[in-house]
Write a structure and sequence with these properties.
The protein has 275 residues and is an alpha+beta fold. The chain has helices at residues 2-28, 75-87, 128-134, 173-177, 222-228, and strands at residues 37-42, 50-53, 59-62, 66-69, 96-102, 107-112, 118-121, 142-150, 167-172, 193-198, 200-206, 212-216, 242-247, 250-255, 267-270. The protein starts with a helix and ends in a 5-residue tail after the last strand.
Length: 275
């Protein structure tokens, strides 16, 4: 039993180690930008170790070696650049490590049906679902679709206000809430815009507890909309339930069953019973 337990503990440790290695490898490929703050450590050289802001021209200034262009380089590339400069007349085999202290160069925009729309700094590995959480998550008016607009890519879809050469990636809330799949791992890049579409509405009037407008998704049934409205009152005539639907600008009055799906813009009318 102890041997088996040790084997599982060893396997778990290997999994955790692999995750840390993968995360470190991903961050080492992060491309530095202006206004990022770097944490630079030179082994056994406290005067060189510290936090350095990347200036608007893309450079940083260090003791001994002066200005070094950092923007556009990965963390590992800049480490190599600094090692080369420090080894040129200053130190023998200098050990340099660089990490991101603050992400300020990469920004994304989150708009639509979220609690706190606005501009947000992106970490090197921020995912779409993490960005939505940063914006306070979605509001009650949110629909089922989230749109990621990535500028200057191949056009794969269209969206009002999106340029013709934008990438537009559409995912559903169900995809994002799932425990696996590519939607949860979808990462953000500098300049991305996340748009949370508002839900389409249906309207309920007549003999229901709470008449009004209610959000509907694809496949929402008549019964579900009536439930959102608090249910039908005892005075309601369910056998004369009608759906008013506009098709091509023409009003149609339809008899429907409770299991039929409603369409965006439908009006459900529950008339009063005769007795």
């Amino acid at each position: 039993m102890n041997r088996m337990r040790r084997m599982w503990l060893h396997l778990a440790a290997l999994v955790v180690m692999a995750a840390h290695v993968a995360s470190a490898a991903q961050m080492s490929n992060y491309v530095i930008g202006a206004q990022d703050v770097l944490s630079i450590s030179v082994f056994d050289e406290p005067d060189l170790t510290g936090k350095y802001a990347v200036e608007l021209d893309g450079s940083i200034s260090l003791p001994l070696i002066g200005r070094v262009h950092a923007a556009g380089l990965s963390l590992r590339e800049l480490e190599g650049e600094l090692r080369t400069k420090l080894a040129s007349g200053y130190f023998r085999n200098p050990q340099v490590t660089i990490a991101i202290e603050q992400y300020r160069s990469q920004r994304g925009f989150i708009v639509g049906a979220v609690k706190n729309p606005g501009t947000y700094s992106l970490t090197g590995d921020m995912t779409l679902i993490e960005a939505l959480a940063k914006a306070g998550s979605t509001t009650d008016a949110a629909g089922d679709e989230v749109v990621l607009i990535r500028a200057h890519g191949a056009s794969v879809a269209t969206l009002p206000g999106a340029a013709a050469d934008d990438d537009v990636i559409r995912v559903t809330m169900k995809d994002l809430q799932g425990e696996s799949g590519t939607a949860r791992r979808l990462g953000l890049a500098d300049g991305d815009t996340v748009y949370v579409a508002r839900a389409q509405m249906a309207y309920v009037f007549g003999q229901v507890k709470n008449p009004g407008s209610y959000p509907v998704q694809a496949g929402t049934t008549v019964l579900q909309v009536l439930s959102l409205a608090g249910g039908v009152l005892p005075t309601g005539a369910m056998n004369r339930l009608q759906v008013i639907r506009m098709v091509g600008g023409v009003k149609h009055e339809l008899k429907v069953s409770l299991t039929e799906a409603v369409s965006a813009g439908d009006t459900l009318v529950v008339p009063e019973r005769f007795f």
